[in-house]
Structure formats: structure tokens, C-alpha cells
Design a protein that fits this description.
- The complex is a heterodimer of chains A (648) and B (372).
- Among the domains of chain A are: 150 residues, no CATH class; 101 residues; 101 residues.
- In chain A, 65% of the residues lie in helices and 2% in strands.
- Chain A is built from 30 helices and 3 strands.
- Chain A has a 3-stranded antiparallel beta sheet, with no helix packed on it.
- The termini of chain A are far apart.
- In chain B, the strands form 8 sheets. Chain B has a 4-stranded antiparallel beta sheet with strand order 1-30-29-28, with no helix packed on it. In chain B, strands 2-3-4-5 form a 4-stranded antiparallel beta sheet, with no helix packed on it.
- In chain B, a hairpin with a 2-residue loop joins β28 and β29.
- The chains are: A mainly alpha (648), B mainly beta (372).
- At the A-B interface, α1, α19, α21, α23 and α25 of A face β11 of B.
- Chain B: It is found in: Nucleus.
- Chain B: This is Nucleoporin Nup43.
- Chain B: Keywords: Nucleus, Repeat, WD repeat.
Chain lengths: 648, 372
């Protein structure tokens, strides 16, 4: 067995006291835990009568996160339909836009959670939602970085621009602070003024920094030249333009030139008289100590990393990133003891170790949503090919199956899981087959929806089983018509036979058919089982008889017996039905038909002889047979006379 | 599709209905109700699309529907109908029929009348699948094959037709004030005349031999003999209940169960259908000439042979566009109204220029500019 990466979390079962033995049963997403009766032979004490349900993934029960699941399901399905044969050049923009769609869904969800967390009066809910917001924030941060590094795979030059965007997006408290400063009476004297200017510069938002500086410059006419110089430096800082004609080498030369200029200004103490501008200048040359002095403004090591790259190595190549990342992290975190999981995940991303990212996320996060969707997207980008698991099929499928199984345990979200299973080529179908049969069916409408899922995927075994469940339920409630409809839909001959028997029994006891609207409209469904055919045909006989189309009725009745459609046990009823036809004034059964009827009767009586019915029933039976024989003989006589007469 | 506004609501929506607007005013509807299904706790909810006041403020920019109030509903909401401006009737998978009152001043909901086990088996629940009402009368149908008549102002049950159907009745609609039409799971339409005391249908119509279950039915708003149904195979059938016992025309509409069909209440040349396959279709039929239909009606009246054959009644001799022929000649146009999605569209309602629908993807779509 492999070693575990982290110690598993302990969940305390509230109802179980110390020293008690727990039993458990696995479910697809949950575990049922119960206290067992196991105890020392004469120890007394009652056993807890509770069964506890332990859920692995609490998030799917959050009403707001449900929106995330539903919206991302839509994006997921869209991603699966991107055609395989497109050249990869055309696919990349699509993948990037899908990745952005996922992120915008996360953001929308986050905003809503934030709103609720703020507006709620319940402190517990507020913390719970607050926690979810911070989890989503982390998820979005990681996803965005993965998008820049893996999916978009920006080359040197544009890489830094993307990373800057990434930092700006996730460190947006600057804007809030800036708004506060600008709305104050005299912004330049606000105590946060320089923080805002520095933060702008640290994020490379030089235009905004310049606009802020203008406000200070007007207040200090004496230092005008100094501010002007700073403004020139800021305005001249070159940024790479990936769409332009400029090559990376050209840019590099230009940037070095600017860097030297800034350095010169620092050397000849141009800003010595103004402490704030001096610091700004030091930041512009990328002075590490000055940067580290402003940890509170950077707040994270990856902000530090991006700022350092901006002012020291703007043409950083993707392959060099890990070196800078590692060193920045060490420099930034030296006071803190251990890096947190998020730090390690981001570092792994900078090291382009996709599998480590996914693995660490799986461990650190409490839901499968993120890893499943990210891995799926990365797999579509063909970034995960080389990796094989020693269990299951591959990483993508494994994670999708975990996520979908979790969804399937939810009373309502199970429908979403179906599409995820569909896109797991190796085990998806097996999972779906096992799960779909276990969906509780309260109404026929739900059953129809489940059936549609099965039928679309040719899961005939499950179709049969669901129809059988519904048929059994209908039968239990004495709804024979519904039960028959369900067994016809399942093409379940055995069950159709059983229900047909019930119909016939009902007829024998009551003398009338129930559910005529159904039996009269069986059509070709009648052929499903012999007994059902008989039921339909027998009803047809009654209809013909009712319509006084006697000869047709007689012919049908006889054929039911001679073609062996009617069960032997029902022959006596059929023969009794023939009695009124035999007693009609005109001849209905021909001589040949009467012979056949007689033959049927004899066959029946000879097989009945061995029966052990009570004598009373026997008497009735005997009388019936006598009556039949008499009627048959009389009819035969009449038929012979009539047929003879016609011939003459 | 650009006019469509989607809102995710964290519950699978089984029914959506616009609140009625008074017929005299030409107002667009602004409030709709939804019912959820398959949740641990199901709800009925009232939403506002806020047409009042805000329209001049932010033209072009449409607000999301806003939740006004919601109320716990026992069991899945299987059907939903407004009884009047304030009251709504729901039917439940538990067999219960409930009238809720929406208090618009306080934006709260209360139960005003409830029949807990209107539909039931001796020892089990029988889901109540459909309801139709014409205040104060309420007619419900269920999986138990019963038709039950209730009155909003009376506690008891007015009338029960036991064994009205041997299979499940999926939907019901009024034909006239005393006549209803039901569709069942073996492809039959049954007409019931309440003036008769017998518990047998006055007429049965069916698809020949196929036994395809029918899930929804709607009556043409002006011509009571024209009825549209949708079935399990996604086919749209238009029937003339006066003539023949088979559908007048059959059109391929969806690739899975059609859950609802609705004629546009004021412009019945337009029809809307939604389905398990995740699509919502807008059907538009146009008569051959550009003449308005009232003029065509006049022309037909002058044809003595036709009016002699047609049953008495003013507007009945008017040739209806839905009965005037087959779709193959291109007089019938269909448009998809939703962006592609895979999960079922369970319900739709259309009133004026507004359309609302709800899906298993837990989204409500509202379109305020339906081209009718």
C-alpha cells in the first residue's frame, strides 16, 4: 500500500460514545455509520438507535454553489463537443475562452456568496459563506494561473503581461483604497495616498500612478522638477506589445536603456530630498530590499514575484519561472514558518508540474468540482497525455467519475451527472448503469425522465428494471391498466402474462372486463405474450358478440382453442361462452366447427378426469359438460340438415 | 435569442405560469410563478420581471427576474394554474391539491385551501398530474386515473369520476365550460361532458395503433374544436375534435417527450412547445393570403356549400390555419427560442409578448420580446 500524502481528517460521530463499536456501509458519496451491538458478554447498556450519514462533499448541498454546478455543466458539455480534428492552432483560443467562462461562473458565484454573507444576520451562515468565498477565491486564483501558464501558454514577453493581469485581478483592494483617497477632501494629504501610489507602481499600473502623482506635484511647487522627472521615468517605461512589429530583442534593448536611466537617477540622488520618490525610484530599478520592505502592500509572495519580474526580468521565459518563483517564495516567507497549501500549489504551477497542482488541489480542497473541470480542460489541451494511473483509466476520467458520483448522490443534481458519465469513455457507462437504477422514483414523470436517459443510451437492462418497478407499483395499487402499459413498454413478456392472468381472473369473478379503453387499443402490443394475445382476442370475441356478429364471434372463439392461444384452464369458460351461440335459432357453428368443438370438449374432460376437486364442484362441472354435449349434439344435427339443404 | 434572459435559481423548475393580467388593459404581464420538483424541500415562488417604472430608466438593459416571495410545497409541484389575480392552484406528487394566496401588499404567501389526499390509492400516494380551473371550479387528474372536480369555495369534493382512465391521465384542458378533454399515457384523448351523469367519456380520440403516450394538451383560444397535443415521441398533433377520431395533422417537433404545448392566447397563429430534449420551439403558421383572418372568414361564409356543411356557430366556419393543410408546404415556420442546452425544458408560458420557461438545468429563461 502506498503511503498517504497527508493524514486523513478525523470526523467525530456525535451519537457514538467511547468504547462503542461502529459499523459502516459505503455509499457512492456518503458513508452510513451505525453503532453495533457488539459488547462484552454481560455488559449492560443500550445501543444507540441512530444511523449517521457521513458526507464527503458538503458543498453540493449549498444552494448558491448549485448554480456553479449547473452553469459549469453547460460549459463542460460545450467543451466536449469541440471537434477533435481541428488544427490545434484554431483550438487554443476556444480553450482559453472556455477557461474564462469557467472563471466568470466562479466569480459570479463568489459575488453572490459574498452578498449573502454580508447581508445575513446569522453569524454561523456568515462564517460558512465567508469560508466558501475564500475557497472560491483560491480556486479562481489557481485556475487563472493555470490558464496563463498551461492553456494560453504565453511565450516570453506576453507572459509577464498576463501575469500582471493575474495579480491585478486578484489584488483589487487597491482600487477600493484609491477610491477612498480620491473621494476625500484633499487626496494628496490622505494617509493612504502613498500606499495607493506605491501599489499602483507595484502592479505596473503606471498611468494611474502618474495621475495620482500630479495631485501631489501641484501641492509642492518647490519640488516640481523632481516630480516631473519621476513622471518622465514612469511614462517612458517600455511595455512589450505582443501584437506589434517589435521583436523581443528590440524590446529588451529598449528596456535596458530605460533601466539604466532609472539607475542613473538613483545614483546621482535626484530624489534624495523626497523620501517617497526615492522609494518609488528604488522600486523602479527593482531593488529587492525596498520591495521586501513593502510586504504589507504586496501581501503575497506571488505579487512580489510578478513585481520583481516586471522591474528586473520583463522578458522572462516560461522555463525560467520556477527559479524566480522558488527564490521569491523563500525571500518573502522567511519569517513565516511553513508555506500554506495554496503557496505550494502555486509554486507547483510555476514549476509547470501539472500533476502536482492537481494532486495538491485534490487534497487541499473539499470538493471535486475544481480538479475535475480543470483536469478535463487540460486534458483537452493535450497536456496530460503521458500520465497513467495504476488504477482506473486515467486521471481525467478518475476525477470526473468522482465528481459525478458525488452529484449522483444528490437528490436533485443527479441529472447533471449523467452527461459527465457520458464523457468518461472507459468506466462512465458502468457507473451510470449502477447509479441510474437506484434513483428513487416518486412519480411517473420522474420515471419517464430516467427512462429517457436509459433509452437514449441503449441501456435495455435498466429500462426493463425501471419499467418493472413502475409496473409492480401499479399492480400493488391495483392499477392493472398502468401495470400492463409499463410491462408493454419494457417488452416484459412474463410480467405481461401475469397481468393478463389478473385481468382474466377479474373477468371470471366479476363477469365484466375492467379497463376496456386499454384492452380495446392494444394493437400490435398484443403480440408481446401469448396470454396478452388471448386477452385481447377474447375481448374482441365479446365485442363481436355484443355487436351480434355471431358467426365471426364463433369462428374467433373456436380458433382461440384450436390454435392453442387460450390456456387449457380457460377452455371451460370458452365452451360455456359457446353455449348461447349453440342455442341460437339460426345455425352459427357449421358441422365441421361443431366437430371441432366436440373434440375440444372431449380433450378437456379426459384431462379433467384425474382432477381432485371437491364433489360439489364436480357436480356443477358435470352438469355443464352434460349441457354442452346436449347443445353440441343438437347443433350438429341442425347444421347437418342445413348444410344438406343448401347443397340440394 | 438575444432577448433571452437566463437566471439560475438553485432548483429544478417543473412549472412556470404568468399571472393573469386583466383583459381590458393592454398591459404586459410582470409577475410569474414557478414550482420546483425533485428537491428535498420544494417550493412555489413568485417572481417579478419589473416592467413597472424601470422601463424608461434602463431601456435595452433588462433586469433579472427578482424573487418576490416563496413558500414550501409538500412534494413535487406537478402542475400550476392561476385561479385569479391572487390565487394559484398547485398539484403535488403527494396527490394534494392546494390553493395558495399571494398577498401582494406584504409579498407573502399563505395556504387558502387544501385537499391533502385528493388523489390517492388505498395505501399509497397517487400523484396529481394536472389541473385546470375556471374560477371557482377546479378539475384535477392523476396517476390514479381519476377526474376530480373541486370548488375553490368548498371544502368537500364536488364530484369524482372513478376509473376515468385505466392508465395515467397526464393533462387536462377545458373545451367548453362544461366539457373537458384529458390525455393519457396510451395515446388517447377523452372528452368528458359534465352535464351527463354517466362516468364514461362522451368521445375517445386516439393515434392509430401507436399507443404513444400524450403528455400535454392545449385548446385553440378562439376555436374550441381545435386542440394541440404533444407526446412522448416529441410529435405535435393538431386535432379537430368534431371530425374523425384521428389527428388532423402530425408534425415532427422534438426528439424526446414534449412536456408542454401552448397556443398564444391572443394570437393563436403562434404556438409554443418545449421538450425533454432541451429545446423550446416557436411555431408560426400563416394563411395563404395576406388578408386578415376576419376577412377570410367572411369569404367562407359566402360559400354556401361550406357553411351548409359546417356546424352552426359564428366563427366555426372560419378555416383555421392549423387545420388548413400540411406543414410540408412551408407555411409553417419553426424557430428555436433557447440557446443550445441539454437539460429538459419542463414548462413554458406565454402571455402578450412575454415568454417564461423553466428547466432541469435549474434556470428560468424570460423573453420579453416574443415576435407575435
Amino acid at each position: 500500500m502506498e503511503e498517504v500524502d497527508v493524514e486523513p481528517a478525523v470526523t467525530n460521530i456525535p451519537a457514538a460514545s467511547d468504547g462503542k463499536h461502529l459499523g459502516f456501509a459505503w455509499g457512492p458519496g456518503d458513508i452510513l455509520v451505525y453503532e453495533t451491538l457488539y459488547k462484552a458478554s454481560n455488559a449492560k447498556g443500550s445501543c444507540s438507535s441512530f444511523i449517521n450519514e457521513v458526507r464527503k462533499d458538503e458543498d453540493i448541498y449549498s444552494p448558491i454553489l448549485r448554480k456553479l454546478f449547473n452553469e459549469s455543466h453547460h460549459i463542460f458539455v460545450g467543451l466536449q463537443t469541440i471537434r477533435e480534428d481541428l488544427p490545434s492552432k484554431n483550438k487554443k483560443p476556444q480553450f482559453v475562452s472556455i477557461s474564462k467562462n469557467y472563471r466568470s461562473v466562479i466569480r459570479a458565484c463568489m459575488e453572490e456568496l459574498q452578498q449573502v454573507a454580508v447581508s445575513t444576520k446569522d453569524a454561523e451562515i456568515a462564517t460558512q459563506y465567508g469560508n466558501q468565498v475564500s475557497i472560491l477565491l483560491a480556486i479562481e486564483l489557481i485556475w487563472n494561473l493555470c490558464e496563463v501558464l498551461f492553456i494560453d501558454a504565453a511565450p516570453a514577453g506576453s507572459l509577464l503581461l498576463h501575469l500582471l493581469d493575474w495579480v491585478r485581478l486578484h489584488k483589487s483592494d487597491v482600487d477600493e483604497k484609491a477610491r477612498e483617497v480620491l473621494q476625500s477632501e484633499s487626496p494628496a494629504e490622505h494617509h493612504d495616498y502613498w500606499d495607493v501610489v506605491l501599489s499602483y507602481v507595484l502592479q505596473g499600473r503606471l498611468e494611474e500612478a502618474r495621475q495620482m502623482l500630479v495631485k501631489q506635484a501641484t501641492l509642492q511647487p518647490a519640488a516640481r522638477n523632481m516630480y516631473k522627472l519621476m513622471d518622465t521615468l514612469l511614462s517612458k517605461m517600455p511595455f512589450y506589445n505582443p501584437g506589434g512589429t517589435q521583436t523581443l530583442t528590440d524590446f529588451d534593448v529598449k528596456w535596458r536603456h530605460w533601466h539604466d536611466e532609472v539607475n542613473r537617477c538613483l545614483q546621482d540622488n535626484s530624489f534624495a530630498s523626497n523620501q517617497h520618490l526615492e522609494i518609488l525610484c528604488k522600486i523602479l530599478v527593482g531593488d529587492e530590499d525596498t520591495l521586501l520592505d513593502h510586504k504589507d502592500l504586496l501581501s503575497t509572495w506571488y505579487h512580489f514575484l510578478v513585481t520583481r519580474l516586471l522591474f528586473c526580468h520583463p522578458t522572462v521565459k516560461p522555463t525560467e519561472l520556477h527559479y524566480y518563483a522558488q527564490s521569491c517564495m523563500t525571500m518573502f516567507l522567511d519569517l513565516r514558518s511553513v508555506p500554506e497549501p495554496l503557496d505550494n500549489i502555486l509554486l507547483a504551477a510555476f514549476e509547470f508540474d501539472i500533476h502536482q497542482v492537481i494532486k495538491d488541489c485534490s487534497i487541499a480542497l473539499n470538493n471535486w468540482w475544481f480538479v475535475a473541470h480543470l483536469t478535463d480542460l487540460l486534458d483537452h489541451c493535450k497536456l496530460l497525455q503521458s500520465h497513467n494511473l495504476h488504477f482506473g483509466s486515467n486521471l481525467r476520467e478518475f476525477l470526473l467519475l468522482e465528481y459525478a458520483s458525488g452529484l449522483f448522490t444528490h437528490h436533485s443534481l443527479w441529472q447533471l451527472a449523467v452527461d459527465y458519465f457520458d464523457h468518461c469513455p472507459e468506466f462512465g457507462r458502468v457507473y451510470l448503469e449502477l447509479q441510474i437504477e437506484r434513483v428513487p422514483l416518486d412519480t411517473e414523470r420522474k420515471a419517464l425522465k430516467v427512462l429517457r436517459i436509459c433509452e437514449q443510451r441503449q441501456m435495455s437492462e435498466q429500462v426493463r428494471s425501471i419499467c418493472k418497478i413502475m409496473a409492480m407499483r401499479a399492480l400493488r395499487n391495483n392499477r392493472l391498466g398502468s401495470a400492463l402499459s409499463w410491462s408493454i413498454r419494457a417488452k416484459d413478456a412474463a410480467f405481461a402474462t401475469l397481468i393478463s392472468e389478473r385481468f382474466l381472473q377479474d373477468y371470471c369473478t366479476r363477469g365484466t372486463f375492467s379497463d376496456l379503453d386499454l384492452i380495446d387499443n392494444l394493437g400490435s402490443a398484443m403480440l408481446l405474450s401469448d396470454r396478452l394475445t388471448f386477452l385481447g382476442k377474447y375481448r374482441e370475441f365479446h365485442k363481436l358478440y355484443g355487436e351480434k356478429r355471431f358467426s365471426k364471434a364463433a369462428k374467433l372463439l373456436l380458433s382461440l382453442m384450436t390454435a392453442k392461444i387460450a390456456p387449457r384452464s380457460f377452455w371451460m369458460t370458452l365452451l360455456t361462452d359457446a353455449l348461447p351461440l349453440l342455442e341460437q335459432k339460426q345455425v352459427i357453428f357449421s358441422a365441421d366447427q361443431t366437430h371441432e368443438l366436440m373434440f375440444c370438449l372431449e380433450e378437456l374432460t379426459s384431462s379433467l378426469n384425474a382432477s381432485d376437486k371437491p364433489p360439489q364442484d364436480e357436480d356443477i362441472e358435470l352438469t355443464k359438460v352434460e349441457l354442452l354435449r346436449l347443445a353440441l349434439a343438437r347443433n350438429l344435427a341442425m347444421a347437418i340438415i342445413k348444410e344438406g339443404t343448401v347443397e340440394a | 435569442m438575444e432577448n433571452i434572459n437566463a437566471k439560475y435559481v438553485s432548483q429544478k423548475i417543473s412549472k412556470t405560469r404568468w399571472r393573469l393580467v386583466s383583459q381590458s388593459s393592454l398591459q404586459q404581464p410582470d409577475i410569474f410563478a414557478t414550482g420546483s420538483w425533485d428537491n428535498e424541500v420544494n417550493k412555489i415562488s413568485f417572481w417579478s420581471i419589473g416592467n413597472h417604472g424601470s422601463s424608461d430608466m434602463d431601456d435595452g438593459f433588462e433586469r433579472d427576474p427578482q424573487l418576490l416571495c416563496e413558500y414550501k410545497h409538500d412534494g413535487d409541484v406537478l402542475d400550476l394554474q392561476f385561479l385569479d389575480q391572487d390565487r394559484i392552484v398547485t398539484t403535488s406528487s403527494t396527490g394534494a391539491v392546494t390553493i395558495f394566496r399571494h398577498h401582494q401588499n406584504s409579498q407573502t404567501i399563505s395556504v387558502s385551501q387544501r385537499w391533502p389526499r385528493a388523489h390517492h390509492y388505498p395505501c399509497d400516494n397517487a400523484p396529481c398530474t394536472g389541473v385546470v380551473c375556471s374560477s371557482p371550479e377546479i378539475v384535477t387528474v392523476g396517476e390514479d386515473g381519476k377526474i376530480i372536480i373541486l370548488r375553490a369555495d368548498q371544502e368537500g369534493v364536488i364530484r369524482v369520476i372513478e376509473n376515468a382512465d385505466s392508465s395515467t391521465i397526464h393533462a387536462v384542458t377545458y373545451l367548453r365550460t362544461t366539457e373537458i378533454l384529458t390525455v393519457n399515457s396510451i395515446g388517447q384523448l377523452k372528452l368528458w361532458d359534465f352535464r351527463q351523469q354517466s362516468n364514461a367519456p362522451s368521445q375517445i380520440l386516439s393515434l392509430s395503433g401507436d399507443r404513444v403516450p400524450l403528455h400535454c394538451v392545449d385548446r385553440h383560444p378562439n376555436q374550441q374544436h381545435i386542440v394541440a397535443t404533444g407526446g412522448q415521441d416529441g410529435m405535435l398533433c393538431v386535432w379537430d375534435v368534431r371530425q374523425g377520431s384521428t389527428p388532423f395533422s402530425i408534425m415532427e417537433a422534438h426528439s424526446a417527450e414534449m412536456w408542454e404545448v401552448h397556443f398564444h392566447p391572443t394570437n393563436p397563429d403562434h404556438l409554443f412547445t418545449c421538450s425533454e430534449d432541451g429545446s423550446l420551439l416557436h411555431w408560426e403558421t400563416s394563411t395563404h393570403s395576406d388578408m386578415p383572418s376576419f376577412l377570410q372568414g367572411g369569404r367562407n361564409n359566402s360559400m354556401t356549400s361550406r357553411s351548409a356543411m359546417a356546424p352552426a356557430g359564428g366563427n366555426q366556419s372560419l378555416i383555421n390555419a392549423w387545420l388548413s393543410g400540411d406543414s410540408s408546404k412551408g407555411r409553417l415556420e419553426t424557430t428555436h427560442m433557447l440557446p443550445s442546452q441539454t437539460l429538459s425544458v419542463n414548462s413554458l408560458d406565454v402571455l402578450g409578448q412575454c415568454l417564461v420557461c423553466g428547466t432541469d438545468g435549474e434556470a428560468i429563461f424570460v423573453n420579453r420580446q416574443v415576435p407575435v
